[in-house]
Specification:
alpha/beta; Rossmann fold; 3 domains; eight-stranded mixed sheet; six-stranded parallel sheet
Length: 438
């Protein structure tokens, strides 16, 4: 079997590489010629554990191909997955122009029946717009070809995407008929051998499932951050509360960690998009609106703690930042809380020196020379008035207090992810600030 993936971003590249691992021939398309040339040589532009190896392996086995031309790659394909970007407009709605442009190209060059699958995260109803665009192209060409459409949203966690794809908790697919269901069942059958579930449903439900899942997870995070802020006011400890509620199987232990807010390419964008979709239908999603508001406020919590400690004046102070990506195991800084903190520090007249295991290149693109960049985490703390932990990378979890005492100007730690033991910090002579902790 042969399939086509349009888009070699995070979703498209992971999808194409992992499907090729099963023996299916995959061609991945992108308009960025430089990016495609790099991919042909096994060079990828994103950091994702395990992805580079799987790409190189399947290029060598001639199962994974890269091209800038849909026309030259579409022959013989049984399915086309559209996995291009859907960036948000200023009003929060998703920009689906790249999706529709890809669909238009498919309609222009398809030569046999195939299933066109929307893989991008898109507003409800987009798959039917894809259908209309393709049919319009076929009508213009006076073609009698037929096709099916489907929605197959991704549920990949950045930093664990390869594992998530190869061993999925569930595969959600929206289809209109049995023919499309049969084609996609064949593609995903190798991923079901260990009992992972494929859930077929109608197309609008599949599109909404993606947004609902991300908004539900975002809700859990914002809810716990609200409780964490209350903990500080009443003298409770959010970690104790988390253990108490997480033992309830109806709640569970995942996504109930308090911190400096969520970021990344999915949660903030999808929350905005679902609010906009409901608004267009005349309905106000009050809970989801609150999730967004709480998260925006939470990203400034650490900054407000810093200001209170230094008497609302940090002009001339110097801070060491540990962690820049929105979560570990990725270089993605989109909507990262670190970007809010750094901007606030600079606006207040402070300086910052930052370190992240993989996101330094991205940080330089964002902040230029406005901050300095360290060669390792302890280099970031030289003459620092305080350490600010923003991303819970594994290498940050154990502190060398002897080194900290020698290189830092002041012994203060702001823990934006609650990874340190406050008692241990204080025993070593440091002032500790966490989120929702005594």
């Amino acid at each position: 079997m042969k399939i086509l993936i349009i888009g070699t971003g995070y979703v498209g590249l992971v999808t194409g590489a992992c499907i090729s691992e099963t023996g299916i021939e995959v061609s991945c398309i992108d308009i960025d010629e430089k990016k495609i040339n790099n991919l042909k040589n096994g060079i990828i532009s994103i950091y994702e554990p395990g992805l580079e190896d799987i790409v190189k392996r399947n290029i060598e086995k001639q199962r994974l191909h890269f091209s800038t031309s849909i026309k030259d790659s579409i022959d013989g394909c049984k399915a086309v997955f559209i996995a291009v970007g859907t960036p948000p407009h200023e009003d929060g709605s998703a920009d689906i122009s790249h999706v529709l442009n890809a669909a238009r190209e498919v309609g222009r060059h398809m030569k046999e029946h195939m299933v066109i699958v929307t893989k991008s995260t898109v507003p409800i109803g987009t798959s039917y717009k894809v259908k209309d665009v393709i049919q319009s192209e076929l009508d213009r060409l006076q073609s009698k070809l037929t096709f099916d459409i489907a929605s197959n949203p991704e549920f990949l966690k950045e930093g664990n995407a390869v594992e998530d794809f190869l061993r999925p908790a569930r595969i959600v697919i929206g289809v209109e008929n049995e023919k499309a269901k049969d084609t996609l069942s064949k593609i995903y059958r190798p991923f079901q051998l260990n009992g992972y579930r494929t859930i077929f449903m109608d197309i609008p439900s599949a599109e909404l499932t993606k947004y609902t899942a991300n908004c539900m997870l975002a809700t859990k995070i914002s809810f716990m951050n609200e409780i964490a802020n209350l903990c500080e006011l009443v003298g409770a400890d959010i970690n104790m509360v988390r253990h108490g509620i997480g033992s309830d199987p109806r709640i569970g232990s995942k996504f109930i960690y308090a911190g400096a807010g969520f970021g990344g390419s999915c949660f903030p964008k999808d929350v905005k998009a679902l609010i906009k979709t409901a608004g267009d239908k005349g309905y106000s999603l009050e809970i989801i609106k609150a999730v967004e508001a709480v998260n925006n406020r939470q990203k400034e919590v650490i900054f407000h703690k810093i200001m209170r400690h230094f008497g609302n004046n940090i002009k001339g102070k110097h801070f060491g930042i540990w962690g820049l990506s929105f979560k570990p195991n990725t270089d993605d800084m989109r909507e990262a809380p670190s970007t809010v903190i750094i901007s606030k520090l600079l606006e207040a007249g402070a300086s910052a020196r930052a370190y992240d295991p993989v996101a330094m290149k991205e940080a330089r693109l964002r902040f230029g020379d406005s901050i300095s960049y360290a060669s390792d985490n302890y280099d970031a703390l030289l003459d620092a008035n305080a350490l600010i932990l923003m991303t819970e990378w594994a290498e940050f979890r154990v502190l060398n207090f002897k080194v900290l005492k020698r290189i830092m100007k002041q012994r203060i730690i702001f823990d934006g992810r609650n990874i340190y033991d406050p008692a241990e910090i204080k025993e070593n002579g440091f002032v500790y600030y966490g989120i929702g902790r005594k």
